[in-house]
Amino acid sequence: MNSFLYNEFIFSSRYRIWRHLLYWTFHVAIWAAFWVVMGVPLSYGRQLLNMVMWVPAFILFGYPLVYGAIPHLLLKGRVWQFFLFVLLWGVVGLYIDAGYRSYVLIPAQEAMGLDNILPRGPLAFCYLCMTTSAASPMVIKFFKLWTIKQREWIRAQQEKTTAELQLLKAQVHPHFLFNTLNNIYSFSLDNSPKTPGLILKLSSLLSYMLYDCKTDEVRLEKEIDIMKNYIDLERERYGNKIEISWSVEGEIKDKLIAPLLLLPFLENAFKHGVSEQIEKPWLGVDISVQQGTLRCKIANSKNEYVPESDKGIGIDNVKKRLAFIYPGKHELKINDEGSFFVVSMMVVLVDELPAASFSPASMFISQPTQHETSVPAYR
Q: Does the keyword Kinase apply (predicted)?
């Protein structure tokens, strides 16, 4: 499908003459064979000559329909005008048929000394041959122009999707940075000696978001390292008041993932769960990659009397980006279990290989993601 949409010979104006020569050669050969099969007492060579001599009449009758009626009437939605023009032009075709035979074809055949020459005057089978000869290029032109419009529509949708993804990532960045800077600011007020180390970790986060996140995909290892830096920043903030478990298993090397898909859930766990916990809070992160599938589960304790929100900017953007980037290849479950909150995400990853050719059709094959309301408790 992709190779047809962008076939240069079919759509490039450089090959227009060659396309016409190829079409009429094929057309003449087929019609000559048709008349032989129908039992007309002429050789195939003579039939070829007759059909070649008919080509100017076919062009005179067919091209106004192909280059006038199709693009300027039918494809612009002027259907009734299109059919009216075809009917009127069909009447004109009667005179084109009779006039061409009487004043061009027959005199030329007589000058060449040919026998079995058609008589002058109206002939139904000649008119039928001319009209059907116009129908084929009309169908071809219609589907060619329709394909061009589809290609332009696909390109526009691709550009729209790219712009929306860039906007979503741009919304994630300041939201995440705002909370992280607030954490470091609290340390600087106390003149903590840990502040330089925290600033260094923040610089790695800034570098990640300013440079790495400009690409469509990043190494999974890098995303996980940034998550660990974020947890270290939060651990310094909470000290021994929080219990954190961290587990990474499986084949995380040489895997690619869209940037900033995991961080917003980690940020949400601290912001809406741990920070509002009266008793000792806890956080658990399990990440595993098996057979090219990433599974990430983030669970955190929370104040069961404070409803958890999954509609923040960061979480909402992740849902949209998952639908854009991994249609039919992801699963997201967000569950409030009262005293704790669980986010489970599954994404089918790709290996770190040279980028494959992009298929526009793939932007539109999507399946809705279901957000279930119950999952097993975090273990």
A: yes
